[in-house]
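User: Sequence in, structure out. Go.
Assistant: Echoing your sequence, followed by the structure tokens.
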Amino acid sequence: MSDHQNLLAEQRRALILDEVRRRGGVRVNELTRRLNVSDMTVRRDLDALARQGVIEKVHGGAVPVVEASTHEPGFEAKSVLELTAKEDIARAAAAIAVPGSAIALSGGTTTYALAQRLVDVPDLTVVTNSVRVSDVFHSAQRAGGTGGTRAGAATVVLTGGARTPSDSLVGPVADRAIDSLHFDVLFLGVHGISVEAGLSTPNLAEAETNRRLVRSARRVVVVADHTKWGTVGLSSFAGLEQVDTFVTDAGLTAADREEIEEYLPGLLVAGRTVEDDG
């Protein structure tokens, strides 16, 4: 993390958060040297990350927040994390969608970023249990300004159901709607993905709805940033063998890539890696 004085606050805070999680804690004086910014700037960044609930400030530095497997952050809290990574993932994953196909998007901030890329793919049929994702497509239709449906606009099916803190719709209503449908591709956001637990979430009802989404898809594409690898939520809903492609970002370590490639047939790393820049 050298020569980062020109980074935007968002990028700098993402680097700090990654360092806290990777090392288990950082000191303010270390960050000032590595980022080449003032002590006051680092302390403001730590204050902002603490308000988001992703770190805990301690004397002279910060440590990661140890979250229970049942903790489920809200959409707004998650939307400010790993923004660059999510954009990279969305750009790469959007290329998978074929015009005229039937796709599903689960809830989550990464699928929300992906939806904003998919509005330009013509004639999609989109099934989603995410209120936020549905709004992206409906807003794109209205942006046409003609009073009617934009040519090539997606047909969107919102499942219904009970709303979670991350604005996903889950439960029996959503499950019944998904059971009657079949998708060419499912783009699936996850709380955690690991060798031991597979795909997991802290919400039991969401786990069951995600299980139905996976079952109804010909191809399962997981979209998740590198911080989700190794994270385990309360309830597992799919094994790694059910995933066809894992689209993630360049923050993934070389060791993690090797491990993932042992278990998954398709790994797509979006964005520039250290090797690319060297």
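User: And one key feature?
Assistant: The longest strand covers residues 217-223.
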